[in-house]
TrEMBL record:
Major place of residence: endoplasmic reticulum
Keyword terms of this UniProt record: Endoplasmic reticulum, Hydrolase, Membrane, Transmembrane, Transmembrane helix
A Pfam family assignment: Peptidase_A22B
Name of the featured protein: Signal peptide peptidase
Organism: Exophiala mesophila
SMART domains, A to Z: PSN (SM00730)
TM annotation in the entry: 67-87, 93-114, 253-275, 329-348, 404-426, 432-450
A GO cellular component entry from the record: cytoplasmic side of endoplasmic reticulum membrane
Membrane topology, from the record: Multi-pass membrane protein
InterPro entries for this protein: Peptidase_A22B_SPP, Preselin/SPP
Disordered: annotated segments: 30-51, 465-519, 555-593
Compositionally biased residues, Basic and acidic residues: 36-45, 468-519, 560-587
Family: Belongs to the peptidase A22B family.
Length: 593
């Protein structure tokens, strides 16, 4: 047992890693929290499109009927693969066909996995905020400096104590340029007439992740299948699957785990199907862990020498692999991710109750107010570089209590240790769900019983119907103001709804005529293929909101010698010059009749 301890520790860490990361990546706004109100967006925001990406993501919600279908469909698929392997005798062709299929799905999941990994590295190396000298410093990419709460400025691009490291000016400028390139988001738009429509925010990390994922998947599919590359694709499958599947309710998750509990026992102990398919197929449906082989690598021996040949023969004879199916990660991990989202739900639910009680004491109104959702994903680097005592509301919201998640993780670890121990003692393959399912379910429901949250856990649901109901209720409020909005919109330009004249900026007539011609020409044209990549630019005199604009009174030309321009005065001077060119007195404002 002792020589195998590193192997089994590797197995345990590899099983927990995709569950922990995917569970945190799957966090979304709970039903009891109100969406964050839109504020002025900056060109280089880190979380610019996270909410949009999560809102557009299609989540597969499972129902109690799936608890019956899962074992039947899984058993039929397993039996089909087993009989194909028996009929072919050589699994090479089946491995090749399944490899092509998994390469397509694996490319998508591997790209997402690498993108989030690179985003994590970016957050640690180039965070958007950090603490120092008892203050919070926030980046202003436009001004190429960090600004504190009191308006002080640091021009070093490095965070935390690293800002005191002296950097040559060329290196500092290159780091700021690198930061701009890493955080800058472009808009990708692709339309094929009545076939495909894509509009997505992309950045440099997306391009790098897609390129690297394509290379890794191509090597695994067409060149070689080393165990570490198979494990990488397995991590990617687990990481992506746990973000796109939810058991909807705790009771549905319990039914699914219970059904697959008996499925795993039957096909491992009473049939050869599971073991045969797992050992014969060389596709990323499992994680592989090399066991100690006792072979000593001949250091310095050339290829083809007798010593190297003996070493390879020893490996072929003695090296074996410990295996863990992806189902033993995804099936329990689905409930672990659900437990983390339930923790987030309780965090905002208790906030809404405290807010409602406070408002009731002040005004006597019994109406319960939902707290604003502040996000729960990302900003790991900002949390690392910021002292906990200086965390703002956004960072504190990302560090919410997680009792149910940690309890289920402990139950999963206990189940996995039990599986490995029994397998080593019995010297026979074990159905991992036999030990994992009781550990996870007992820890989840036991924690709810201990904390008095059984009813909350049973009633909590992630069904889209709850979101649609809340959206319909919120959609009723704008309808009440439709008449007012319509009167304002239908008012004559240059006048408000009461007919009072207001100052407007007159637009050149040539531009209006050109726009009209374009619209007229669009009716006689049909767009078959449209592809565009739009980069955000900052023209002179733009009104893009930056942190430096918010703290302009604290900035000075000596402390931050950047291109700080009063955009309002520049715009006013430009409009004045246009009026002079058109023959209008500069002091007169245009009023549209």
């Amino acid at each position: 047992m002792r020589p195998l301890f590193p192997t089994y520790l590797h197995l345990l860490v590899s099983a927990i890693f995709p569950i922990y990361t995917a569970a945190h990546a799957s966090l979304t706004r709970p039903p009891c929290a109100a969406p964050e109100k839109g504020e002025g967006k900056r060109l280089w925001d880190d979380d610019g499109d996270d909410d949009e990406e999560l809102a557009s993501r299609t989540i597969e919600t499972l129902t109690p009927s799936d608890a019956l279908l899962f074992p039947i469909l899984a058993g039929a698929t397993l039996a089909l693969l087993y009989f194909i392997l028996k009929w072919l005798q050589d699994p090479a062709w089946l491995n090749w066909c399944l490899g092509l299929y998994f390469s397509q799905v694996g490319l998508f999941f591997a790209t997402r996995f690498l993108k989030d990994a690179f985003s994590l590295l970016r957050s640690f190396s180039l965070p958007t905020s950090y603490s120092g000298a008892g203050q919070i410093w926030k980046v202003d990419q436009k001004a190429r400096c960090f600004i504190s709460n009191s308006g002080q400025i640091v021009q070093s691009p490095l965070p935390g104590w690293l800002r005191h490291v002296p950097l040559p000016s060329p290196i500092s400028r290159r780091i700021w340029t690198l930061r701009k390139g890493l955080y800058l988001k472009a808009q990708l738009e692709l339309r094929l007439h009545r076939i495909l429509g894509i509009k997505q925010s992309v950045d440099l990390l997306d391009v790098v992740s897609l390129s690297l994922a394509s290379a890794l998947v191509s090597v695994h599919t067409f060149i070689a299948k080393p165990w570490y590359l198979t494990n990488f694709l397995g991590f990617s499958f687990c990481y992506g699957s746990l973000q796109f599947i939810t058991p909807t309710t705790a009771w549905t998750g319990t039914l699914i785990l219970g059904a697959l509990f008996f499925y795993d026992i039957y096909f491992v102990f009473f049939t050869p199907l599971m073991v045969t398919v797992a050992t014969k197929l060389d596709v990323p449906i499992k994680l592989l862990f090399p066991r100690p082989d006792g072979c000593v690598y001949p250091v310095g021996a050339p290829e083809g020498s007798q010593a190297m040949e003996e070493y390879l023969q020893c490996l072929a004879k003695n090296r074996t692999m410990a295996m863990l199916g992806l189902g033993d990660i995804v099936v329990p991990g689905m409930l672990l991710a659900f437990a983390l989202r339930f923790d987030l739900y309780l965090f905002y639910l208790r906030q809404s109750k405290s807010i409602g009680n406070l408002e009731q004491e002040v005004s006597g109104d019994k109406k319960q107010t939902s707290p604003t959702y502040l996000g729960a994903r990302g900003k790991w680097g900002e949390r690392f570089w910021t002292g906990r005592g200086l965390w703002g509301k956004e960072l504190q919201a990302r560090s919410f209590p997680k009792p149910y998640f940690y309890a289920t993780v402990v139950g999963y670890i206990i189940g996995m240790i039990t599986t490995v121990t029994v397998m080593q003692v019995a010297q026979h393959a074990q159905p991992a769900l036999l030990y994992l399912v009781p550990g996870v379910l007992l820890s989840l429901w036991g924690t709810a019983l201990f904390r008095g949250d059984l009813k909350l856990l049973f009633d909590y649901s992630e069904s889209p119907e709850m979101e649609e109901t809340s959206r319909e209720e919120k959609a009723k409020e704008p309808k009440q103001n439709k008449s007012e909005d319509k009167s304002v919109c239908d008012a004559e330009p240059g006048h408000d709804k009461d007919g009072v004249g207001v100052d407007v900026e007159q637009k050149p007539e040539v531009h209006v005529q050109k726009t009209g011609e374009n619209r007229k020409g669009d009716k006689d044209q049909l767009c078959l293929i449209h592809f565009a990549i739009t980069l955000p630019i900052e023209p002179p005199g733009s009104n893009v909101k930056t942190i430096a604009d918010d703290t302009a009174q604290a900035l000075s030309h000596e402390s931050c010698p950047t291109d700080k321009i009063d955009t309002r005065s520049e715009n006013a001077e430009g409009r004045s010059r246009d009026r002079e060119n058109e023959g209008e007195p500069p002091g007169k404002r245009a009023r549209k009749q």
